[in-house]
Amino acid sequence: MNMTHYMELLATNQPWNLLIFMAVPVILAETIAVSELYILFTRNLTGIVRNINKIAGILVGFYFLVIFLHLFFKAVIPITMAGQWRTIIDVIAVGFYLLGVVPLLGISLLELNLIAKHKSEESKLKIHATFVAIFLVVAHIAMIFGMLSPAVLGGHSEMPGM
């Protein structure tokens, strides 16, 4: 079956790639999303749920930064140099997956008080929730395009010259 590099990455070296590139970041991100709802509804900025949210937020950004750097240098650059992208579907899937580093690292930096230092707790909650929402959007775009067969756009397996 013709598949995107995104799906190929997850399907190769089972179960390790699936755990490293999907399970760990998604579990951390979902932990943040669920605990974020609790925090937003209760406005309880202390306690175990907030601590779990904070720890997961710090971990996921730096974890995903390592993934981003690894895949950028070991996959994106070589695939691009060799012209081996499998249609624009492949580019969108991989691009949006890697774009997840922006909101996830933003959450980490916010949790470490390296950005929005002088903002109120209410403002920081809004920024945090916005980062979570952005991540959910880019991650779902990556998943949807990642599961599409590149053949949907004419059956070409590679995009020469990209």
Would you kindly provide a written description of the structure presented here, covering whatever features stand out?
- By secondary structure, the protein is an all-alpha fold.
- It contains 6 helices and no strands.
- Helix 2 packs antiparallel against helix 6, helix 3 runs antiparallel to helix 5 and helix 5 packs antiparallel against helix 6.
- The longest helix has 34 residues.
What is the arithmetic mean of pLDDT?
Answer: 94
How many structural units, i.e. domains?
Answer: 1
Class based on secondary structure composition and strand pairing? mainly alpha
Strand content: under 5%
Cα-to-Cα separation, first versus last residue? 22 Å
SSE sequence, one letter per element: HHHHHH
Which key phrases capture this entry?
162 residues, single chain, elongated, 6 helices, mainly alpha
Quick summary:
By secondary structure, this protein is mainly α. Helices cover 73% and strands 0% of the residues.
Task: Give me the secondary-structure topology.
Blueprint: H1 5-11, H2 16-42, H3 48-81, H4 87-99, H5 101-111, H6 121-147
Helix pairs in contact: 2-3, 2-6, 3-5, 4-6, 5-6
